[in-house]
């Protein structure tokens, strides 16, 4: 029991029990090994991206600033869930403190909202760079970029704080077993002893508004970008512009498609999609984008790729200067 019935000031020393992946206990060791490897790649890749952008003045441009913030958000997102998942799968550390559970929930949902906003900002950056190149530096000034980043963070805080408050103040008086590998909102809310429809509707409507509006504006940006690109007379210019946008489009697909699949599969319930598939989808949604984002940007962005290689050569062989 987590506390007395309908106690809205629940004892914060209470704990939840995270099952991991229901129905797949025999796979937990392999999941722990895989997650450890993926997390190491995510941390290394995103830290490398931040370091390279930070120490190279030639990368002090809007696109790289956004990419640097995206890498930090990816580190926060992965670090909010993966260490605890590995503990569950490898060492059986299934218990999580009440406050820690809701803190994890808050960071996960806030990071996903921030990441969606950053992808929109990066789409806008590409739109200005390709459709209004002569006005690029006048439009995307440092002040404008800082304002955009702050607006994205504030939007996430305003959107997620009410959800966090609603779920953390639900009365938990029954089972403390969370059928998930992290404190996912729906899985935790199901344990409450009162009506959870308000928080569930808020979550669904809020995610639909945030993600829906971001996707709509991103789609509009890329429609305008593609119109401008195919209006260019030079084939080389067309290929260069498409290559510049290619990494962004791949990253957006990796973020939005699994995310939307995870949300709507959870709403369909285990009668339609088995519970272990739901949990695995939600887990992959939080670890795959942070792992692949730095790899995609590192490979697809020529200037960033050169700087990363210079830094690695300097660190490994100590004979290549970081500055050209």
TrEMBL record:
Family: Belongs to the G-protein coupled receptor 1 family.
Gene3D superfamilies, A to Z: Rhodopsin 7-helix transmembrane proteins
GO terms assigned for molecular function: G protein-coupled receptor activity; olfactory receptor activity
InterPro entries from the UniProt entry: GPCR_Rhodpsn (IPR000276), GPCR_Rhodpsn_7TM (IPR017452), Olfact_rcpt (IPR000725), OR51/52/56-like (IPR050402)
Protein name: Olfactory receptor
Entry keyword set: Cell membrane, G-protein coupled receptor, Membrane, Olfaction, Receptor, Sensory transduction, Transducer, Transmembrane, Transmembrane helix
Name of the coding gene: LOC103270678
GO CC, alphabetical: plasma membrane
